[in-house]
TrEMBL record:
InterPro entries: Cyt_c_oxase-like_su1_sf, Cyt_C_Oxase_1. GO terms for biological process: aerobic respiration. GO terms for cellular component: membrane. This is Heme/copper-type cytochrome/quinol oxidase, subunit 1.
Length: 418
C-alpha cells in the first residue's frame, strides 16, 4: 500500500512543480509569464501547500507504510478527496488568498474542506501506529527516528484543535491564520527533520547506532515540544519568535549537524543513485542553512532559507523513492536519468537559493507579484538567476516524475496480472 501513497505524493509533486514553475517564470523579468495577480497568489498558495504540506506528508505516509506495513483499513479516499479539493481551490480564482507562513490558505469552503479531509487521513495513519511509540528510546537509530516521526505527525494534526481556541484575529485575518497554524507548522518542521535524518541513513546503506545519535534524536524531540508553549502566549510576539529561532537552531540544527558528521564519516563514495541523492540533499540543506546564518529580514532571503532546507527533505525522499522502487522491481530502469536527476535538482535549488538571497539582500520583497520594485541591474540579474533555477528544478522534478510513473505502471501491471 505504500505505493498508493507514493502515487499520491507523485501527483502532489507534479502540482507543486507546476505552480512553482509559473511563479518562478513570473518573478523572472525575462519571462514575465503570468500577468494576473489574482491567479499568481492562488498559485503561490498551491505551490506552498502542495510542496511543503501535501507532497511531504503523503511521502511520510509512504515511508511509514514501507517500514511497518498496513496496520488496518484506512480510507485512502479521505486523503485523495482532500488533495482534489485543495488543488481545485488553488486552480480557480475564487476566495481570498492569505499568504501566512507554513500553511497559506484560500478563504473558501473548498480549500478548508480539502485541508480537513487530508489531515484526517494523515491522523488516522499516525493513530494506527501508536504501538511503535515505545521505540522513542530505542538504541536503533532509524527505529528511534521512525517512532519520533509518528509522535510528531500525531502532534502536527492534533495541535490544530487548541490552536482553533487560542488563535485570534487581532491585526487582521492573515494574522489569524498565522496564529492558527503556528504551533502545527513549527512541529511539522521537526517531523520533516526526523524523517530526513532517517532517510539519510537509509540512503547511506549503513545502520549506524550510537549514544550520540540517540541523544541527538531525543534533543530534536524535546525541542519540538517547546513549540506547545504557543498555546499560552501570542505566537507573533518577539518572545515566541526568539523561542522558535532558538528551538530550530538547537533542536534541529545540532542533531542535523551530528547526523551529517556520522553519515559522511561512514559513507562509501560511489556513483550510485542513493549516494548522489544523499550528497545532493545534504548540499542543498546546508545552502539553506548558510543563508540563514548570513542574516534574514522579511524579504526574499526568507524563501532562500526555506527553499534550501525543505528541498533537502524532498531530494532525500526522492532518493528513497528510487530505493523502494528498485527493491520492488529488482533493478533501476533509466539509471542514467536516475543518477542525473538529484544533481540537476540540487543545482536548480541552489540557484534559486542564491537568486532569492541576492535579490533579498538588495531589498526585493517576498510574496510580491511582479518586479516593478526592481531598480538595480543586480536585482534583475538575481531574479533571472531565480528563473533559471526554477527551470532546472522543474527539469529535475520532471525526471523524477517520469521515472516514477514508468516504474509504478510496471508495478500496477504486475499486481493486476496476478
Amino acid at each position: 500500500m505504500h505505493f498508493f501513497y507514493l502515487s499520491l505524493s507523485l501527483f502532489s509533486l507534479v502540482l507543486s512543480g507546476f505552480f512553482g514553475l509559473l511563479i518562478a517564470l513570473t518573478k523572472a523579468p525575462a519571462f514575465y509569464l503570468l500577468k494576473s495577480p489574482q491567479l499568481f497568489y492562488h498559485f503561490l498558495v498551491g505551490h506552498v501547500t502542495f510542496s511543503i504540506t501535501v507532497w511531504l506528508m503523503t511521502f511520510t505516509l509512504a515511508y511509514w507504510q514501507y517500514k511497518e506495513g498496513r496496520r488496518g483499513k484506512v480510507p485512502p479516499l479521505t486523503t485523495l478527496m482532500g488533495m482534489f479539493f485543495l488543488s481545485l481551490s488553488c486552480l480557480l480564482p475564487y476566495g481570498e488568498p492569505y499568504l501566512n507562513n507554513y500553511i497559506p490558505v484560500i478563504n473558501n469552503p473548498v480549500f478548508f474542506s480539502g485541508l480537513t479531509l487530508f489531515f484526517l487521513g494523515f491522523l488516522w495513519e499516525a493513530l494506527l501506529r501508536a504501538n511503535t511509540l515505545r521505540d522513542i528510546t530505542s538504541s536503533q537509530n532509524i527505529r528511534q527516528l521512525y517512532s519520533i516521526s509518528i509522535i510528531l505527525g500525531f502532534l502536527t494534526i492534533l495541535s490544530l484543535l487548541p490552536s482553533l481556541l487560542t488563535a485570534h484575529a487581532e491585526g487582521g485575518v492573515k494574522l489569524y491564520f498565522e496564529r492558527l497554524f503556528w504551533v502545527s507548522g513549527h512541529i511539522q518542521q521537526f517531523l520533516y527533520a526526523s524523517l530526513m535524518l532517517a532517510v539519510w541513513h537509509e540512503l547511506s546503506g549503513k545502520r549506524l547506532s550510537s549514544s550520540l545519535l540517540t541523544a541527538s534524536n531525543l534533543l530534536l524531540f524535546t525541542f519540538s515540544l517547546i513549540m506547545l508553549v504557543g498555546f499560552f502566549r501570542d505566537v507573533l510576539s518577539y518572545e515566541m519568535r526568539f523561542l522558535s529561532a532558538v528551538s530550530f537552531g538547537v533542536g534541529i540544527g545540532v542533531p542535523v549537524l551530528v547526523h551529517t558528521y556520522c553519515v559522511l564519516r561512514h559513507l562509501s563514495l560511489n556513483m550510485s543513485v542513493a549516494t548522489l541523492s544523499l550528497v545532493s540533499s545534504i548540499s542543498v540543506y546546508y545552502a539553506g542553512e548558510l543563508v540563514a546564518y548570513g542574516g534574514m529580514q522579511s524579504d526574499l532571503r526568507i524563501p532562500a532559507h526555506y527553499h534550501g532546507v525543505v528541498s533537502a527533505v524532498s531530494i532525500a525522499f526522492m532518493g528513497f523513492a528510487y530505493y523502494m522502487l528498485k527493491e520492488r522491481l529488482g533493478r533501476v530502469d533509466w539509471e542514467r536519468i536516475a543518477k542525473l536527476q538529484p544533481l540537476v535538482l540540487a543545482l536548480g535549488i541552489n540557484l534559486i537559493v542564491l537568486g532569492f538571497y541576492i535579490a533579498g539582500s538588495l531589498g526585493a520583497p517576498r510574496k510580491t507579484y511582479g518586479f516593478e520594485y526592481a531598480r538595480e541591474e543586480k536585482i534583475l540579474s538575481a531574479l533571472n538567476l531565480l528563473g533559471i533555477g526554477g527551470f532546472l528544478t522543474a527539469v529535475g522534478g520532471l525526471f523524477f516524475v517520469l521515472y516514477t510513473i514508468k516504474s509504478l505502471i510496471k508495478i500496477y501491471k504486475h499486481d493486476s496480472a496476478r
